[in-house]
Amino acid sequence: MASRQGRDPRKRIVDAAWDAVGxxxxxxxxxxxxxxxxxxxxxxxxxxxxxxxxxxxxxxxAMAEALFVDGWQLPHDRAAEVFAEDxxxxxxxxxxxxxxxxxxxxxxSQVHERRLMRxxxxxxxxxxxLEAATRLxxxxxxVAAELNAVLLDEVLARHGRRWVEPFTSTEAARLAGGLLERxxxxxxxxxxxxxxxxxxDAVVAMVSGLTVSADRHLGVEELQAFLDSGxxxxxxxxxxxxxxxAADAARAAAASAAALFAGGVAGVTLTDVAxxxxxxxxxxxxxxxxxxxxxxxxxxxxxDAVEEAGGRRGAEDPVLxxxxxxxxxxxxxxxxxGCARALLRERVDGRAAEDLRxxxxxxxxxxxxVSRVVSGGSDPxxxxxxxxxxxxxxxxxxxxxxxxxxxxxxLWLLGPTAG
Length: 419
What we know:
Strand content: under 5%
Shape: rod-shaped
CATH superfamily of the largest domain: Tetracycline Repressor, domain 2
CATH class of the largest domain: Mainly Alpha
Number of domains: 3
Helix content: 55-70%
Largest sheet: 2 strands, antiparallel
Radius of gyration: 34 Å
Order of helices and strands: HHHHHHHHEHHEHHHHHHHHHHHH
Structural class: mainly alpha
CATH architecture of the largest domain: Orthogonal Bundle
Number of strands: 2
């Protein structure tokens, strides 16, 4: 039943109680405020208040409930309208964050926030305060996070994005909400301490840093490794690599991820590799350090075919055997340029040289073939390394350069013999 002022009497009592709490302090939800004080503020008899509320506990519940029904979803609703717009992902995130911040800093929202802060302060043992805090956790924050998580799921799906693992939309909603809520409290105390775009910029940066393209996987463990060692981290010593510490297991894992590098190394993450080979991100990171090293090791899956090609005619004619081997190496390089280019880059870089020779023993394959053609007076290991680099480099340059590379290797190796 509405009062003569046209308002629900229970709501008038609740508003008056909140006003009284605002003046009395935040020691307890109803600390220093009695039902008599509320009645006096309204200009009614205490019996009128007790008619609607049996005591402080019931009034406290109603005061808390008022915070959950009086417009607190408005920031979410406005953000939802922005999320529905057809705009680039970054613009949508910024616009939604801006809309949310403008609603949070509106006059009514500041009153609402102050009451929330007082409600938090009411958890010191007062039964009504504890019950209100439980209601806040189970209702207000839980429902808000779920609604915002649905929005985030929709906008990420629409724009082809996914969260960095193991984050979820619910967690991201809680992070963004907590960030803006805390900034709002600081802004209310000292507006000059919070620049106008700080919260919006922070949400944009957070969402940017926590999302990747939907066709990629990126995990916190990989990001941690990136911070520890940098983007061009040195290969690990096997510590933490688990089963991947063994060379055969590392080659098998890299081979499982080889398809990821069909278009090159750019855009591929170690988390992608971990998904492809079914190993934990931490083990993959500890073993390989960079996606480029995985791609380089993946080229090792071609070595059996390369050596087999050199052996078909190599027993009868070592020269033909070497030519066949080099031609097969050219074919494999041109069929798998992403991994071949990564292998050449890792070989030139040299930081992982010893480990790379173990994981990709291509020099050994070529050295055995070269030794059957050239004997004495030369360092076979150095010669084999030079031949591999020469053939890989020319095979990746152009279709014309590859045959020329094989021919030049033959002239270089056979020249001394012919002389």
